[in-house]
Amino acid sequence: MLGRHGGGDARQGQRESEKRPDGTLVLRSPIEFETPKWSILDFTPEWAEKAPQRTFLAQRGRDGEWQGFPMPNYGKGCSR
User: Fold this and answer.
1) How is the beta sheet containing 14-19 ordered, strand by strand?
2) d(CA 43, CA 47)
3) In the chain, fewer beta carbons within 10 Å around the N or the C end?
4) CA distances from residue 41 to 22, 46, 48, 79 in whole angstroms, order as listed
């Protein structure tokens, strides 16, 4: 099932929606994404040098405790 919906904002234009048999609703916008001017990864080499002891990424382990990953060591040949 494919439908078209008008938004309340004229800048949004039309968007398509698709409801799949499993109940998933997929929305598509006609608005093109712009290329970002920067990424959070652009700052990683600077902070890896300034504060290498800081946690770069963290996730919860199976025990519920945080598991941290240190800043990448860009001085040892790692690059974006």
Assistant:
1) 2-6, 14-19, 25-28
2) 6
3) N
4) 36, 10, 11, 10
B/e letters for 65-74, b = 16+ CB within 10 Å, e = fewer, are eeeeeebbeb
Residue whose C-alpha is closest to residue 38's, from 29, 50, 46: 46
Q: What is the pLDDT of residues 26-71, one digit of tens each?
A: 998 888 888 889 988 888 888 888 888 888 888 999 999 999 887 7
Instruction: Determine the residue type at 23.
Output: G
Cα–Cα nearest to 27, from 4, 52, 54: 4
The CA–CA distances, whole Å, from 2 to 6, 17, 41, 75 equal 14, 6, 38, 52
Q: What is the distance between the terminal CA atoms of the chain, rounded to a whole angstrom?
A: 42
Decide if pLDDT at 14 tops 90: no
